[in-house]
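Quick one: structure tokens for this chain, please?
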Amino acid sequence: MNEKNSLGLDRCFLETDGPFDLFEKWYQEAKKKEINDPNALALATSSKNGVPSVRMVLLKDFSKNGFVFYTNLNSQKGNEIKENPFVSMCFHWKSLFRQVRINGKVSQVENSVADEYYNSRAYESRIGAWASKQSSVLTNRQQLVNSIHEFKEKFNDKDKVPRPDHWSGWNLKPDSLEFWLDGDNRIHERLKFILDHNGKWKKVLLSP
């Protein structure tokens, strides 16, 4: 029988007043046990008209200041974020039977932050950021291949590939985080942190 914490939840839910230490703990466990991409998350955005879209992206950094991912700013998600900066993330770590849902508002990271991450990427990935007009319609696959070749010729020094102005990072500053643990007979365990108007985290249990 699993030991329970003071809230009656499995002990994997830490005794903490804020969500970030708990996320760090779960994330580190996911890195050890999740076979592929423990930093993968479903990112949901919506247009100014409220039409939703969702796709998988990779978390590249996180702290108490937010959760960071990178993309082409002119992609579908980039354009939707410009129209409506409120987004939602969902991590699903199947190997741990856990999920984390995060809601909040995103803002673009500082140029220096984007530059540092961009320069850490492989040469092919940096070229791809130039060559791909993400989410735009291709006439055929060769059109993209040709674009890659053109930018490789333009930036043939692998140490000197500048970051495109249209490529950067977004930081989601959360106003709520929900931690979910699979339970027998669908009696799951759910703990939600909600940021109040005073900047304090309120902790509540949710029914499965």
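The mean pLDDT is 95.
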